[in-house]
Design goal:
Blueprint (H helix, E strand, L loop, with lengths): L15 H36 L3 H15 L3 H13 L14 H20 L4 H13 L6 E7 L5 E7 L3 H6 L2 E2 L5 H9 L3 E3 L18 E8 L2 E9 L8 H19 L11 H6 L5 E5 L8 E5 L1 H6 L11 H4 L4 H14 L3 E6 L12 E8 L4 E7 L4 H10 L5 E6 L4 E4 L1 H6 L23 H13 L4 E8 L5 E13 L2 E11 L1 H15 L2 H20 L13 E8 L10 E7 L5 E8 L4 H18 L5 H13 L7 E9 L4 E7 L4 E5 L2 E5 L18 E4 L5 E5 L11 H14 L5 H10 L9 E8 L1
Antiparallel strand pairs: 1-2, 1-6, 2-3, 4-5, 5-6, 7-8, 7-11, 9-10, 10-11, 12-13, 12-16, 14-15, 15-16, 17-26, 18-19, 19-20, 20-21, 21-24, 22-23, 22-25, 25-26
């Protein structure tokens, strides 16, 4: 007979529950037998040591004690083991079929036997299983976790019962910045009872967020050794009797952890661990008492992405990452405070000298001790991560997948609800939804399908779905193509019912109509600020005041009138015959940025008359920025041109490179990698010296000229270089106009551009 015959055909299927029940009972009986034998073996060993007799004589003595006490050998063994470990008092409710005193005595003896059997187990996990099966399940507990407190303040999972392997792996470690109930239990030394689960924001293992939990500190000889977590399947009233019984039952777990022969595995050095990764990674370190983070170590992949480890290792984060240091610092602080991973989707490219600097994708920051953090990122988009981020932006998701190979469409239960269809109805593929979409929205659905099927790219749209139960539903569709090499094999994505959101937007629109007067005043205010900014743009000095130079400058305001920017430029002849040329960009937009721009530009004009070199001027300007109202930050380039020597001396505070056009060829002048203005006190700035030839043109500009939303700055810089080469001979005025007209920037930011040409 085939091996599967008892379970298939001929009515065999009906015997399956009985067979499984019998196997379960046999397994429980075997386990109970093993536990009993283990318990009596331990008690026999204790008697042999105390009476100094052989094991066989000790076993006979145990049997005599049982007969004399009219009790089972296991009960006497439990009393012997508990007597050695320390007595355990257990209060338990009486069984309904016994007298109260007899019930308490019998139940207490049974529970003492359970705790003794748990302590006799060979591992913490087996001890946890014995406690759960013998003592905690009658109290409704479905899972037990046991963590040991390490010297570093972390909790290491040493044993568990009623828990899946995957969930156990996810909770192997709890960092010192643990959820509040854990910290309370360890600090106060008292159980924390959570009949309705932890509060919002406190995550603990369990089947649901509302499942009851009890967090119990474990101690031996007066010292904290770890933590126990009991989990119920659902919300539960944790009455007074349970709150007495449970701590007494799990008390033995403290001795299990104290005597555990399972030391924590020795972890490799953090730097070695990062070096073994295949994606970029680095460590950040903060010295005690210091506010700034320092890049401590970068692995080979990070060094390659950043243009070499020497460009960032050992440098303050503001210098190593001038564009994203604020984001990284904030993520590191949140990670340290919360004790968990902090994640960002994408940070801009950092131009640290690499041939093709890439943006920091899927940035993750993890705490690595009190003063260290680990930063991980990718330089190439990971499809699964990108899709996960896209899905994560939606709430109340209803999933679908169309298999174009088999013609099968799969929906989740929420999808049927959105379309008002019965759960047993045939699901509709995305291409067949036109009949259920409002006629005015069919074109939007068609465009989405064209993007996915023909252009092979993800797309989204909002359409009105007409349901049979009446009334349209506003549904957002986000779809992605499934490809095998160049073949489209399917479509997957999500539906989201945003009807409530849509109606809220309609109501808000009606409310906003009542605020037109207020909005008109705000628009007028911003227009006035914009006119103010345009009015204070400096005039270019006359050629008579610029010996040996011709110059032109342009300022293009932000596309949106309410986004007044902080860009500035300046060309200033000095008493010693030199000419100062400068551009700068105050971070942000609005009135504060505009006023900050005026303050810094005027301060630099005044400082330039001291006769000091550009590096010193930038150091002083940094101090001015640090003490300016609103604590602005800014990037800037300050250059002094000496017509007698035809030499340009210049310094940069985190600004873009200069572009030199010579004999029809253009090249970028790499700036010093110095920190932006207003980031750190007492910063010094290096200088570069560039010799200029007759006919050379030098371009200074801000990022609005070349920055694009979806490209790195390197692409914009390269496009500017090629455009400058293609212009051919022309005046500097015509040159800046044509460059501004051909600008590739699409961020709608304001732009400053200066061109100077030697004669």
């Amino acid at each position: 007979m085939p091996a599967h015959a008892p379970f298939e055909g001929g009515g065999g299927q009906s015997h399956t529950p009985a067979i499984l029940q019998r196997l379960t009972e046999e397994n429980a009986a075997l386990r109970d037998g093993i536990t009993r034998r283990h318990l009596t073996d331990v008690a026999t060993g204790i008697l042999a040591a105390q009476l100094q007799t052989s094991p066989s004589e000790a076993a006979e003595h145990l049997m005599r004690l049982a007969r004399a006490a009219a009790a089972s050998p296991e009960d006497i063994a439990a009393d012997i083991v508990n007597g050695v470990a320390g007595s355990i008092t257990v209060s338990a409710p009486p069984a309904p079929d016994r007298e109260p005193e007899d019930a308490v005595r019998t139940d207490a003896r049974r529970l003492r036997r359970v705790t003794a059997a748990a302590e006799a187990e060979e591992s913490v996990s087996r001890g946890a299983a014995t406690l759960l099966d013998g003592g905690l399940r009658p109290l409704g507990v479905e899972a037990l976790w046991l963590w040991r407190l390490t010297d570093a303040g972390c909790l290491e999972l040493m044993g568990h019962a009623g828990v899946g392997a995957l969930e156990a792996a996810q909770w192997r470690w709890i960092p010192p910045a643990a959820p509040l109930p854990v910290r309370r239990a360890l600090t106060d030394g008292e159980p924390v009872w959570l009949p309705d689960g932890p509060a919002d924001g406190d995550v603990l293992p369990g089947p649901t967020a509302r499942a009851a939990r009890a967090v119990l500190p474990l101690r031996t000889r007066g010292s904290a050794v770890g933590l126990a977590l009991a989990v119920w399947p659902d919300s539960t009233e944790l009455d007074e009797r349970l709150r007495v019984s449970l701590p007494a039952l799990v008390e033995v777990a403290g001795r299990l952890l104290g005597a555990a022969a399972e030391p924590a595995a020795e972890l490799p050095a953090l730097d070695d661990l990062l070096d073994s990764l295949v994606s970029p990674a680095m460590t950040l370190h903060r010295d005690p008492g210091e506010a700034s983070l320092t890049v401590e170590h970068v692995n080979a992949q990070a060094a390659e992405a950043l243009g070499g480890a020497h460009r960032v290792a050992g440098r303050p984060i503001e210098v190593a990452f001038p564009l994203v240091h604020r984001d990284l610092s904030a993520m590191a602080r949140r990670a340290q405070y919360a004790g968990f991973l902090q994640r960002a989707a994408r940070l801009p490219a950092e131009h640290n000298g690499a041939e093709t600097p890439a943006p920091l994708l899927d940035v993750r920051v993890l705490p690595a001790g009190r003063d260290r953090a680990v930063v991980l990122w990718h330089t190439v988009s990971d499809r699964r991560t990108a899709v996960g981020r896209a899905v994560g932006r939606l709430q109340g998701l209803a999933l679908f997948e169309d298999d174009l190979t088999t013609g099968r469409t799969t929906w989740t239960a929420q999808t049927y609800a959105i379309f008002g269809m019965a759960p047993d109805a045939v699901p509709l593929p995305l291409s067949a939804l036109r009949s259920r979409v409002h006629p005015e929205d069919v074109d939007d659905l068609t465009e989405l399908l064209t993007d996915v099927v023909e252009r092979r790219k993800g797309a989204s749209a909002v359409v009105r779905v007409v349901r049979q139960d009446g009334g349209p539903r506003h549904v957002r569709i986000a779809a992605e193509p499934l490809l095998r090499e160049s073949t489209l094999t399917g479509i997957t994505g999500v539906y989201q019912d945003i009807s409530a959101e849509y109606h809220t937007e309609v109501a808000l629109t009606a409310t906003f109509d009542q605020l037109n007067a207020v909005r008109a005043q705000a628009v007028l205010r911003h227009r006035l600020v914009l006119q103010l900014q345009q009015a204070i743009v400096p005039e270019i000095p006359s050629p008579a005041r610029l010996p040996g130079l011709s110059a032109a400058a342009r300022y293009r305001p932000a596309a949106a009138e309410y986004r007044v920017g902080g860009d500035w430029y300046d060309i200033l002849p000095l008493p010693d015959g030199q000419v100062m040329v400068a551009v700068g960009d105050v971070a942000g937009h609005g009135i504060d940025s505009a006023t900050g721009m005026v303050a810094l530009r005027n301060a630099l004009r005044g400082l330039a008359f001291t006769g000091h070199r550009p590096g010193r001027l930038m150091g002083w300007l940094n101090e001015v920025t640090l003490h300016a109202p609103g604590h602005p930050t800014a990037t800037a380039v300050c250059a002094l041109y000496d017509p007698a020597e035809r030499v340009l001396r210049w310094a940069s505070a985190g600004h873009l490179p200069l572009l030199l056009v010579r004999e029809g060829r253009a090249r970028l002048l790499e700036p010093p990698h110095d920190i932006l203005l207003g980031a750190l006190p007492t910063s010094s700035y290096d200088e570069r010296t560039t010799a200029l030839l007759p006919g050379d043109t030098l371009l200074l500009f801000t990022d609005g000229l070349i920055e694009r939303r979806h490209d790195g700055l390197d692409k914009g810089l390269d496009a500017l270089r090629l455009t400058a080469e293609e212009l051919g001979p022309c005046s500097v005025g015509e040159q800046v106009d044509r460059l501004l007209g051909a600008a590739t920037g699409d961020t709608d930011d304001d732009t400053s551009l200066i061109a100077i040409r030697t004669s």
